[in-house]
Amino acid sequence: MELRPIFATLRKHRIPAILIVLEIALACAVLCNAVFMISLRVGQMHLPNAIDERGISLITVNGADPKLAGSDIPRDLAALRGIAGVTAAAASNTVPLSTNNIGWSFGTSPDTTLSTQHTLNMSMYFVGEGADQALGLKLLQGRFFTNDEYADSKLGSGVLPGIHVAVLTKNAADRMWPGQSALGKTFYSKPNFYQVIGVVANVMRPWVGDEEHAYNAVYFPLAPDGMTSGYIVRSAPEDRERILQQAEQILQKLNPSAVVKGRTFTDIRNRFFADTNSMAWMLALVCVVMLAVTAFGIVGLTSFWVAQRRRQIGVRRAVGATRGDILRYFQTENFLLAGLGIVLGMALAYGFNLFLMRHYELPRLPGIYLPAGALALWVIGQLAVLGPALRASNVPPVVATRAA
User: Fold this and answer.
1) Cα–Cα distance between 23 and 2 in angstroms, integer?
2) pLDDT per position as a tens digit, 329-368
């Protein structure tokens, strides 16, 4: 198709053409970054978690006397394990995605004291006997804790336990000793040190900020202690609600001055990702609105141009232009405008991403989003221009005579 008539027409209508180009450019920049952010959030919500999520419930007991933990916790666990349908129960300070997070930095050097670029910050799970069965942890290497290790492990003056054994998640083990087996290795936070006796499949942290650090966690054995105010109860998924009600009633009777509250892990997960889910839907809505505005803008402008050019179209039809020629003319015109807008939009998308990286710690925009966004806008542009272009192609040649 001859392009010179198209360029000549666009030069006569510079302002509308520039507005369409800018609109497409803005849509391209927003679309690429918004879709990227949506993919990050959706990916975060679907990160695997190597525990029995469907069978786990958490019951917290707040307000009990911590000095009585040594007697209360074994009594409470015995009561929970006596409920019909409970397959395992254990005390713990937290569970994945609960937001009750205690992080600490460890290194592989005996002199490790503070958080530096050579240390790894990990969430600490302080668990009682049977926590591996209650959570459904998947042991990859080594072993879990023995009864003696639970009994001998007390918290010191700080938050680190006195016994020198620990179990790491696979992600934490790989980051501490890349390319090596972590089993038998020692990690430090001076003056404490811990030997890795086991490695479990990746379990998410109580608080997850990004995928890179989502699985950095360490398990320490702990004798009954006021720190472990939560009970993990495992059962068949269909029994969870009934068991939660019974467990709350039993524990409330045993701890009348405490506040007892139970939640299924499904509730914990849904609550943790509620804001992320809302953000993903909001960004999706922004994308839809942006694309709709762009499409309606193209429809409106093309319809206006068709109305203005009815005589020109009639003349072209009178000198032999077919309906297909008219249709291709407007489609080519839109393709060129969209192309200019997309080129400018890619530069804007890159600039937006740099801004988000600097101020909101967003990762770099992968290159695949740019051609994908360009393709989407080209398709939307062609679909938007199709209606007005078809109306233009239906203009009869006699219009040229009437207009004259």
Assistant:
1) 26
2) 888 888 888 899 999 999 999 898 998 888 877 788 888 8
